[in-house]
Amino acid sequence: MASEEELFASVDALLNEEPHLPPPAERARLREAAGITQARLATALKTTTQSVKNWENGRSEPKSPRLDAYQRLLNGWAAKYPAPGAASAAATVPAALAALAASDVETAEAPQARDVPAAGPARPAALAGAASRRPAAKKAARPAVDPRFPHGPLAVLDGDGCAYGVDGIVLDCPATTVPELVEWTLRESGLGAPRLHRNGKDSDPLIVLTAAAAVKLGLPERLEGHEQRRSLRLPEDHPVVRQVVKAKWRLTQRGFGPWARIYRKVQGTQRQCVQLAILSWDALDERSWPGVTEMEPADIARVLGVYATRVITPRGSTAVSGLELMTALRPPTRAVRDEATGNWMPGHNPGSLGTEPMDPAPPEATAEHPVVVSSGWSGGFLDEEAYQWVRDVSLLTDEECTLPHAVGLDLNTAFLAAAARLVVGLSEPDHFHAPAFNPKIPGSWLVDLSPIELDPRLPSPFAPDGTRPAGPAWYQTHTVAYAQELGYNVQPMEAYLRRETGAYLDPWHDRLKTAYVDTLAGLGVTKDLDDRAFLAAMERHKDVDPAMAAVLAAIKATVKGGIGKLRERPQGKKYKEGERWPALQRPTWRPDIRAAVISKARINMHRKLRNMATMTGLYPLAVLSDCVVYPSPGASPLDFLPYAASGKPQPGGFRLGPTPGLAKLEGVQSMLWAVGLMEKGLNPARHIKGGDAVLDEGE
């Protein structure tokens, strides 16, 4: 039985705790009963209207001394405007206290809000205080997957010091400078994410700054001035940059821009690096993250948190994140044992691209690449790009011209589907003369495919503009293999081939495919839907949950941007032809892998077009990237897609569904506009917002 001293000690501990506010809903009720607006309350408490909103919806709690003033105000309102039934409830309190004093409760087991959980490392005092003001139910419902990172991969910091994390977490961040923010993130925030591969590295924590948070930390709300806008970074003499350097932190070569990485050298195995993203500097591109910058901080944290969990913690644009995901899933090194010393040291990880950059073969490079400029190469280049083709008007039939509709079919993440089980080269290219063609060896082949006769109502599979080749040209292995599949006896004149090969993109494909399918399923587009239900679900999926629709758009942008980033071209006015640009220092600068993905995707598209013509007699009006337009008697693809007598789709042609590589209905208006641009000799990829057809170098 507890002694009197133990009971009084427990009661004193309760009295000495910091004040507890009423539930969020009651705070809103009291304010409304007093006839006070959120804006007026914010002015009285010297804070922002958004902070008051956060207090009243449970997203965050005020800190002292604002906490004490807020509670005093709420207590005063509670005395004036008691809740219905409060009097009868108050009468029961003395009886409850008497029952408590007379009970045999063992008070030593009573948990307190500031107690450190039994599992996981102890939290710093500042963090524990922030956690203590969150509802206990939320804390219990959020088990930490990795005890080193109890609060998830990232947080969105607002101007009032509230850092919004995943699953409704709100942390108090006391930082008023960028160096203080970095220290808090690494020492107290509990942010980060475990590695995606056992030989890889943990993801560095990401802090996203709202405009208010950026200004509070001494940053400009927007990058102003010609020089800053052109370079997308702060000048080196900016006070914040000086603060960072003075605190012995470093910035990467990209400087302090929309995505700033601040780090120190690794000490032992412990990384010291924080990624910052500044919303008002357009860190989240509207094309890749539609509507996200206009969301509340908690909703932004939700969007980015889901993306981080399903894909990777953002490290920059979606193009950068797509490339980083490749490396995270195929780390360049692994621990190997030195037989001489017995020590463990970094060694090459089989199946990866290694740690050193690799020059491409001349036909795989770009015209400004040093390999081309220094050698004087004039033998031509690979032209493995996505389709941009319109059928000649003279090849349209009268029946096609009288059909009332043009229906577009867009293949779901067609380039992701092409990356599945794709064998690419892992070693340097070797030059061969008059080699025998082998469809299992990735590389570039010089071959004449002009003699092949194909139906002119279909685009040629050998050129992105759909025209028939005029003579010998360089092609990727998949393109030449398709010519062989069509019955042509290919005889290469030259080839650049790689002896070491592997399915480098397999884990990248698998993770992104799962992320894409799971996100679509959360929006109501599932694999078990029939075609009619699928079309209906796709029509409304963006309205189901705009936040998850933004995640879906980001996943698609990650696929295309990551592939495009494999051939990032020089940027900036200071670049001179023949110089090496920064992207060439990456092992992931691999234009041959990009060419392999696009070649396979284009061949897959042509194979479907050919099968559709065989099964239905239908021929496309135009093909732009992964979208094809057919004339149709109705406004739905159900009016012309081939179905068996059982009602099931015919294999080989276009099929509807949410899986990468299957088709969905696409808006035809923008597609026909693109057709008009193509007829005028313009590249629609440079004119269509969203860049759905773009597989260039990314950002």
Topology summary:
Layout: H1 4-16, H2 24-33, H3 38-44, H4 49-57, H5 66-80, H6 86-102, H7 125-132, H8 136-140, E1 154-157, E2 162-164, E3 170-172, H9 178-187, E4 206-209, H10 211-216, H11 226-231, H12 239-246, E5 250-251, E6 259-267, E7 270-278, H13 297-310, H14 318-329, E8 333-337, E9 344-348, H15 370-375, E10 388-390, H16 398-402, E11 405-411, H17 414-419, E12 424-425, E13 429-433, E14 443-448, E15 472-476, H18 477-485, E16 494-498, E17 501-502, H19 506-522, H20 531-544, H21 546-565, H22 591-616, E18 622-624, E19 627-632, E20 663-666, H23 668-679
Parallel strand pairs: 1-4, 4-7
Antiparallel strand pairs: 1-2, 2-3, 5-6, 6-7, 8-9, 10-18, 11-19, 11-20, 12-17, 13-16, 14-15, 14-16, 18-19
Can you tell me about this structure?
The protein is an alpha+beta fold. Helix content is 36%, strand content 13%. A hairpin with a 2-residue loop joins β18 and β19 (627-632). α18 (477-485) packs parallel to α22 and α19 runs antiparallel to α21. Residues 87-144 and 685-694 have low confidence and may be disordered.
